[in-house]
Amino acid sequence: xxxxxxxxxxxxxxxxxxxxxxxxxxxxxxxxxxxxxxxxxxxxxxxxxxxxxxxxxxxxxxxxxxxxxxxxxxxxxxxxxxxxxxxxxxxxxxxxxxxxxxxxxxxxxxxxxxxxxxxxxxxxxxxxxxxxxxxxxxxxxxxxxxxxxxxxxxxxxxxxxxxxxxxxxxxxxxxxxxxxxxxxxxxxxxxxxxxxxxxxxxxxxxxxxxxxxxxxxxxxxxxxxxxxxxxxxxxxxxxxxxxxx
Length: 245
Description:
Blueprint: H1 6-11, E1 13-20, E2 23-30, E3 33-38, H2 44-58, E4 63-71, E5 81-89, E6 93-96, E7 99-102, E8 105-106, E9 113-114, E10 117-118, H3 122-131, E11 140-142, E12 145-147, E13 151-158, H4 166-175, E14 180-182, H5 185-195, E15 199-208, H6 214-243
Parallel strand pairs: 4-15, 5-13, 13-14
Antiparallel strand pairs: 1-2, 2-3, 4-14, 5-10, 5-15, 6-7, 8-9, 11-12
GO biological process, one term: nucleoside metabolic process
InterPro entries: Nucleoside_phosphorylase_d, Nucleoside_phosphorylase_sf
GO molecular function: adenosylhomocysteine nucleosidase activity; methylthioadenosine nucleosidase activity
């Protein structure tokens, strides 16, 4: 969503803009790192299209996902940002009377199977955890309560479902136990795995996971988007300082 990159674009120095096929982007520097920032649009297909096109064209040293997700785990508060330690397709497999049966499927090459879950690049994940100690989140106020959001490792799931039923929530909890649910990162992670692009996923919690999240997302999504963007800016600056040593 545009709200998820607004603060990132505002931080760019030596900013330029362009368009790759039908997708606009901004480029410039955050700290010592040159970056390209694009909005994917909503859903796994949009996420996969942008990730593939931009990775192929720009040949990035790493791909960073910054955005929001509904709070599946009640310990996550609005504005808490997860460093995804595993990003899961929660609609990959067979839907049975007993819920989802998750399974690998045929990939593009003979004998190659694609998984329903993808870990981040090990070094980026390590660096992200190391960057937490030097990060100072901005306080947020939600439902009359002011607090400082946290940044922590967690599990993110994704599919083209914006809202999910109580039965789906129970099935996901029993079989996957994710912390956040959203709509793009699993596809982007799969693209990065397939193309050999190091990646890491950052998602901040917005509304709780529910069947009809529209009003709650409109109320809380901006807070979550800003929290994820601030953390992403810090991480990119941290990354630049590490690579210059």
